[in-house]
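Page 47, continued from p. 46.
Same chain as before, 76 aa.
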Amino acid sequence: MGKETINLVIRGEEVGYISFVVTNGVLEIKHTVVYSEFRKRGYGKNLVDSAIDVAKSRNLTVTSSCSYADRILSGK
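Result:
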């Protein structure tokens, strides 16, 4: 399967996105991006949580090659 993206839109304006790939039962988060003017509002965590929700709905394991997502996944 190819790269998938979740865009986060607040009040009609895109504030960021998360991209991931699914291979062999594993959802790997590749990038989490929140545009600079929208940072420090929890949107990055919302994006990671959305990817986790996708993984749960598809019965997939979650991993990451994104340093931000790694921190969220490890609970730090």
